[in-house]
Amino acid sequence: MTTEWTVVAAAEQFTLDARNAGELTFTVSNPGVAPDTVVFDVAPGEGSQRPWFTVTEPQRVVPAQGSVSFLVRLAVPAGTPPRRYDMTGFAYSANTAPEESSRSSGRVTYEVRAVAPPKRTPWPWIAAAAALVLIVSAVVVFLVAGGDEPPPQARVVTVEAETLATGARVESPSGSGATVQVQQNCCEVTWSQDAQLFFLGRAVNDRLTVTVALPAEATWQFSAVLTTSFDYANTVFLIDGRQVGDPFIGFSPKVRVTDWVDVGRVRLGPGTHEITLVVIGKTQSTNRYFAGVDQLRFTEVGPEDQR
């Protein structure tokens, strides 16, 4: 019997960095009553090539009524014409021909930007002289100012996640009936301000979206304090529809609260931004896909730390 795989991308597009590299998680689910081994691969769109993509562990066993996540990394080679490209992920049973059991995700796009070649200094001595002038000027400024001026403090935006429950948006493409609520301290754990944002997901691709306002355009380090438990799902974060960071494994035998988890860095402008938590699978035998968020934090990254 052929497995009717379902393939879901965590977002509709890859987020590429300045080097035109990025990553995205795809979830493959087995709705059947028997385990099966799945092979996941990538179908590049027009103008792109398969070697641009790398799939981590492309062949896995998927339990009945279970799911697994595949991390796809994209590295666009230098010199690629700047424009929008697309791809799809697809999965098929390892013991059958791809054309017999293959199922695809929706179309996923990515925007390739022009990368400027490094500038060459025609006369090295000019660069050396300019550097010397800069150093002397900096020393003079330091001496005149007295060196007492402290460095500017990085801006930090910290939000108690449970305060966002009222305006939160829950989406359940499969109609599973996912909900969200504020949960008070329980299960021998204590959350910050004695509560957490509790997402009661019921299926893969259920998602919860909240909004957070930032004061200025900057590169921000996005972090979160999360909860794990025996019936918690594996999840990823999207910011304004684009995946940030790697999947988070929600399972633990007992309820636990993490320390601050550094999810990823992202360039964002001033104003409100959508933070979406997406269920991508689970590692335990349960019909629950729960998730818990205690706090969210955006920390401004200074130029010296933007490596």
The gross shape turns out to be flat
Number of strands: 20
Mean pLDDT: 87
Separation of the first and last Cα atoms? 50 Å
CATH class of the largest domain: Mainly Beta
Structural class: mainly beta
**Uncertain spans:** none
CATH superfamily of the largest domain: Galactose-binding domain-like
CATH topology title of the largest domain: Jelly Rolls
Would you give an account of this structure?
The chain contains two helices and 20 strands. It folds into two domains: 6-112, Immunoglobulin-like, CATH 2.60.40; 156-300, Galactose-binding domain-like (Jelly Rolls, Sandwich), CATH 2.60.120.260. The longest helix has 22 residues, at 124-145. With 307 residues, it is mainly beta. Strands 10, 12, 13, 15, 18 and 20 form a six-stranded antiparallel beta sheet that branches. Strands 3, 5, 7, 8 and 9 form a five-stranded antiparallel beta sheet that branches. It has a five-stranded antiparallel beta sheet with strand order 11-14-19-16-17, with no helix packed on it. The protein has helices at residues 98-101, 124-145; strands at 6-9, 21-29, 36-44, 53-55, 59-62, 67-75, 84-93, 103-104, 108-111, 156-160, 169-171, 179-184, 195-201, 207-214, 218-228, 234-239, 242-248, 256-268, 271-281, 289-300. The chain crosses the membrane at residues 123-145. Keywords: Membrane, Transmembrane, Transmembrane helix.
Task: For this entry, give a set of tags.
5-stranded antiparallel beta sheet, Immunoglobulin-like, 47% strand, mainly beta, 2 helices, 307 residues, membrane, Jelly Rolls, 2 domains, 6-stranded antiparallel beta sheet
